């Protein structure tokens, strides 16, 4: 199994913490966010991860050199950001031999059970399984509606009038068919705006019951520092 780990964010709202380190390396309980992601991948037998870099790439590369992980890590530098979907599309050869592969947004801190998600994915023969969580502020998220079987029947990115509180967690399990939904002509592709709306009624929602938080703001970062109990909780 392989995974894309999208980690090129600036972390602008976390300044001054991110003046000297990229967002994916902000520390949580003494360990960088990226550390937890790579340990999570190892726990669930993901053998190889591709990480995209943009802001302070050398700092990330040094971290990877100085720390040993069981997971094989490949990095790609983006001089110009390609967007969450663009990174996946331009590196699709990385997963060409995989029946299914994970996509993770490295902004999040989570101990999600990827084994359960994998079992759920196998039951449904669609291009994508999207991880979901119950959002406190749905207007700030990508929001889905599910039918009784768990199929996504509507999706809206940051809707003014949310139809539910089930939100995109930035954790996906995709099949090769996903690439047929990518716009061929766009240089920069956003997964939420350009891909997910096309997958309505072609993806299933997996509700994450474990801990998950987006540490994109100082408030969320402080909250995560207080609440995080580690990958085993």
From TrEMBL:
PANTHER family named among the record's database cross-references: SUGAR-1-PHOSPHATE GUANYL TRANSFERASE
Pfam families registered for this protein in UniProt: NTP_transferase
InterPro entries found in the cross-reference section: Mannose-1P_guanyltransferase, NTP_transferase_dom, Nucleotide-diphossugar_trans
CDD domains cross-referenced by the UniProt entry: NTP_transferase
Keyword Magnesium part of the UniProt annotation: no
Keywords per UniProt: Transferase
Gene3D superfamilies linked to this entry: Spore Coat Polysaccharide Biosynthesis Protein SpsA, Chain A
Entry keyword Cytoplasm: no
SUPFAM superfamilies, per the entry: Nucleotide-diphospho-sugar transferases
Domain Nucleotidyl transferase residues, every copy: 2-227
GO molecular function: transferase activity
Name this polypeptide is given: Nucleotidyl transferase
